[in-house]
Amino acid sequence: MDKHQGKTGVVKGYFPKSHLHVMGFSTLLCFSFGYLWYVFSGTSSKVSDTTRRCDVLMMTPWFAPIVWEGTYNSEILNEQFRQRNVTVGLTVFAIKKYVVFLKTFLETAETYFMVGHRVNYYIFTDRPEEVPKVALKEGRNVVVLQVQNYPRWQEISMRRMEMLSYFSQQRFINEVSYLVCVDVDMRFNDQVGVEILSDLFGTLHPGFYAAERRSFTYERRPASQAYVPSDEGDFYYMGSIFGGTVMEVYKLTKKCHEAIMVDKANGIEAIWQEESHLNKYFLYHKPTKILSPEYMWDDNLGRPEILKKRRFLAVPKNHAAIRNK
What we know:
By secondary structure, the chain is an alpha/beta fold. Helix content is 31%, strand content 15%.
C-alpha cells in the first residue's frame, strides 16, 4: 500500500467533537488578540490584517499557536529574526531517483522560503553528482551530504531520523539556529517564512486536520515503540515537515531513531514508519508551535474555504516508478 494511502481521509468539517472543548477558548483568544492589537497599534486597520481568524483553531490547549494566514504580522516577525541574525537549515533527502525532484524544490525554495534570511540547504543524497546547480541569493548555500541508500524505501524513510540526529549533533549545531526538515517531492507555492520557527514545531496532516481522534492512523499495536492508546492523542501530524531549534530537533530525531531500532530488533515496523514515531513523540513532547495544512497540502484534497494559502504542495508522481530504483 502506498505510504500516503489511508492517511488522507475525507474532510468532515473543521471542528470535530474531540476539539470542541477548545472552540470557546480559541474564539475568546481570537477577539482578545484582536483587541490588544487594536490598543497597542493605535489603528483599527491592522486588526483586519492579523490575528482575526475566527473560522479556525488558533491555539492548542497547551497554548501553542496554530499558524494560519491572517494570524501573524510578517513584517514584525521578519525584523525580529533579522535582529537575531538567524540562519535556517532546510534539510531534504534525495535518495535514488528522488534526486529528480531537487531542481523544482530548490528553485521554488529560492522564491518562497525564508525570503530575506540566510539559509543552508542540506541535501542528503547517494548521488551527489546529480545535484542540480541552482542560482542562489546572497547568504544562501547548498551543502551536499553523501549518505548510503537502502534496498527498501521504508528503510530509507526511517533512516532519516538517524541521519538528522547525527548531523544535528556533529554539524548543524555549529552552523544554523533552526532546522526545517521536509520531503523532497514537494514544491513551494507561496511564502514560508520565519512565522513557522519555534523551539519545536509540527504540521497538521492535510487528511486529518478536521478528523476525530478515532480516525487518526496512529500505531495501535502495543508491541511497537510508536504505540498510542486509543484514548490519547491531540492531533495527527505529517512527517513531511517538522523542525525547531537544532537541539530540539536533535532530541526528537534521537528519540525516534532509538525507538525505530528497538522495533526493528523486535521484528516490528510501525504502520507509517518514522511518521508514527513522530506522532508518538509529539504526544508526550508537545510542539511549541503547530503549522496549519497551508504548510503541507495536496491538491487532490481539493481547496476548502478555510485554506487561504497553499504554501507547500505535494508534487504529483508515480510512486512505483520512483521508489526502490
